[in-house]
Amino acid sequence: MTDLISKIIELSKKDELRKIERLIEDKLKEEPNNIGLLLRLAVLEIDPPFADHEKSIFFLQKVLAIDNNNAIAILLLAYVNYYCIAGIDEKLMNKLNSIYTDDNEINSMLKYVASWFYIDKDSKLEEMLLQESINFCESHVYNLVHLAELYFKQGRTQEAKALVEKALSNVKKIYRFDMDDEVYDATDVDEFLNERIKGIYLTESNLKFIKELLRTSF
Prior knowledge:
This protein has a single domain (2-215), classed as Alpha Horseshoe (Serine Threonine Protein Phosphatase 5, Tetratricopeptide repeat). The radius of gyration is 18 Å and the shape is globular. It has helices at 2-13, 17-30, 35-46, 53-66, 71-84, 90-98, 104-115, 123-136, 142-153, 157-169, 189-198, 204-212; strands at residues 173-175, 201-203. Strand 1 (173-175), helix 11 and strand 2 form a beta-alpha-beta unit. A two-stranded parallel ribbon has the order 1-2. The protein has 12 helices and 2 strands, in the order H-H-H-H-H-H-H-H-H-H-E-H-E-H. By secondary structure, it is mainly alpha-helical.
């Protein structure tokens, strides 16, 4: 497995993502129930040049066929459905709400992602899930920012700004154009979660957006 990851990193650096896809698919022929590889392939398919969301969902469903309560697969499935397809349906939302693990960071992400179901539908339930997410783990970014945005809408400006300041203190990495020497793995599930759900890894534009919230007032 170590050799495979080294090859993935080498190909990622060269932006040869289709070779990575074939590499993992070939390995899966030998190990069809390898959950780690299925998750990596699901992540690879989400963004361009693939943007094959149905294929990503297919691999995530394969994971769930092996492990029905795999929290990472459910988180990724929710992400793909919410941002790339038609949104989170009630069945998936109930799944997000019903899973509990011994890892509070994962529990926090599950509650945060479940809150997406209630955006523009029920602000009270949205707030409740965001607060539960923060109670599980207050060292993420996006759960704090999204609750802050909700509070800004409600006119709770000082509470909102305190959440934004806390979120900014939780940022661990900023993606910049001069990061050529950094190890890059296009299939890294943890990196994807850190960037897309926890928010502790941010692009410069997303960081700027969060900082600008501190100038928001009603």
